[in-house]
Write a structure and sequence with these properties.
This protein has 92 residues and is mainly α. The protein has one domain. The chain has two helices and no strands. The chain is rod-shaped and about 90 Å long.
Amino acid sequence: MLSKSRIPGDAPDELPRELIDLGKRIAALPAGQQRDLDQAYIQVVDSVRRRRRILNLVQEALAQLRLDIKYLMFDLDATRQERDALKAQLEE
């Protein structure tokens, strides 16, 4: 059996509940069956964590993009107002 616990107790939202339950069921199996399933379980857990990290990065990038768009829209509006003010001054 592995030295580190496959069941994360300190971060309840890190893995889906079903995956945690599967880890507990694997831990309850006899040692021979545990060894057969340990590597597959670890790969699934790593995949879930990697996908969650990727999802968080994408969400952060989208949030930054939304903020950048708001700044650009503000800048565009200010530029248009400046242009209209300068046109009005030139017409006078």
